[in-house]
Amino acid sequence: MKNLLDDIEDILLMGPGPSCVPQKVYDALSKKTLGHLDPYFIKIMDALKEMLRNILNTKNTLTIPISGTGSAGMEACFVNLVEPDDKVLVIINGVFGVRMQDVATRLGADVDVLEFPWGTPAIPEVVEKKIKSTHYKIVSIIHAETSTGVMNPVAEIGSILNGSDTIYLVDVVTSLGGMEIRMDDWNIDALYGGTQKCLSCPPGLSPLSFSDKAMEKLYSRKTKVPNWYLDLTLIANYWGSNRVYHHTAPINKIYALYQALFLIFEEGLENVFKRHQENHKYLVEGIEELGLKMLVDEPYRLPMLNAVSVPEGVDELAVRRRLRNEFKIEIGAGLGPLAGKIWRIGLMGHTSKKENVTRLLNALKAIL
Q1: CA-based Rg of the chain, rounded to a whole angstrom?
Q2: Which one of 265, 296, 329 terminates a domain?
Q3: What is the torsion angle, in degrees rounded to the nearest 10, for the CA atoms of residue 93, residue 95, residue 99 and residue 100?
Q4: 144 and 180 in contact (C-beta within 8 Å)?
Q5: Per 3-state DSSP, what percentage of the chain is helix, strand, and coil (rounded to 5)?
Q6: Which residue in 20, 48, 174, 295 is deepest, having the highest Cβ count within 10 Å?
Q7: Full residue range of the structural domain in which residue 134 is found
Q8: 141 vs 101, 173, 217, 290, CA distance in Å?
Q9: Looking at the structure, do residues 114 and 175 belong to the same domain, yes or no?
């Protein structure tokens, strides 16, 4: 029987995720597996929690990786914080805001949505008016909307909610590791991320953090958390000082996340953010030289996810197929109403290098 793993190609990952993985992170995955309650593994867990607090700029005790992808992080936040009939506001300007709405609705929340056109950011003044019209238990938003390449004004909305009893829930899946996040300063109460984007770690974990206010809401629930696997009242005991068994943690993936964060801090956060911004600028200049246009206006563009409008008369799928088959480069397609209208080019983490941008631009020039 042929082993299919023998024929995996070396593809330059420049889509919306996953990103390229450094060799040291691959090496970490192959380290000897320890038991999930082994004293040395617990030492690694504690160091990992501290690195997550540092990259998120938070003092939150419950700052841990959830065993699952970013979508598990989203579900964990909602399932622990939402009770039936809670008033929830979801701010939507892309696919992942729609997913938040779906998750909250499935939990029996009374969900309102505030929508903005895809490709544009939420407007703080409009959000403030909506928030003042109703008392919401939770307000949620995507920081870096992966489906459009838009950066939302998370800090400004956090300022609006400052001093209220509303829980502010933010998705940082795409922004984590690629741009600054100041959880405490921005009054964020609950957030979740992913490992496979700017952290350049294979998918499978979702960093999550809850403020004291979020923990108070969790522990004052009138009903039990409806999902056992994602119940943070149980998981917190495993990641806390008690180390009470809950589930077998994905040990080697935790090694990999530890190593990925170690590399980021070794490079220096400011240097990492600067590298993402510089390579984004280099890509945009090259895209415009090819006669292509960016979807998002300059002030609201993400440095790690670039939405490029497909020119009239160009078969976007054919371009992506040639990039993959001939040039061994992966980029992403548009989603929802943007399907067929944009390419999504990722410059995330280890992928964000000038030589990778040059390689993509040369390939696009050859194809177009």
Answers
A1: 21
A2: 265
A3: -30
A4: no
A5: 45, 15, 40
A6: 174
A7: 25-265
A8: 10, 12, 19, 34
A9: yes
d(CA 10, CA 155) in angstroms, rounded, equals 39
pLDDT digit string, tens, across residues 98-141 = 999 999 999 999 999 999 999 999 999 999 999 999 999 999 99
* Nearest to 188, CA basis, from 206, 216, 212: 212
Tokens for 246, please give them: 């809950």
CATH of the domain at 318: 3.90.1150.10
pLDDT for position 242: 84
For residue 285, count other CB atoms closer than 10 A to its CB.
Answer: 11
Total tally of structural domains belonging to the chain: 2
The DSSP letter of residue 239 is H
Give the other-Cβ count within 10 Å of 200's Cβ. 25
Please write the tens of the pLDDT for every residue from 292-324: 999 999 999 999 999 999 999 999 999 999 999
User: Is 244 within 8 Å of 238 (Cβ atoms)?
Assistant: yes
Closest to 211 measured CA to CA, from 270, 276, 138: 138
Amino acid making up residue 29: L
**Which secondary structure element, helix H or strand E, spans residue 232, and what is its range?**
helix 232-239
Which tokens sit at 208? Answer: 């999550």
Tokens representing residue 189 in the block: 């109460």
CA 100 to chain centre: 13
- Quick one: how far is CA 156 from the chain centroid? 19
Last residue of a domain, one of 265, 280, 314: 265
Same domain, residue pair 330 and 182: no
The two counts, helices (H) then strands (E), for the chain are 12, 15
Q: Model confidence over 160-171: pLDDT tens digits?
A: 999 999 999 999
What CA–CA distance (Å, rounded) separates 352 from 280? 8
Q: Are residues 225 and 291 in the same domain?
A: no
Distance between CA atoms of residues 39 and 205, nearest Å: 21
pTM of the model: 0.97
What tokens were used for 209?
A: 């953090």
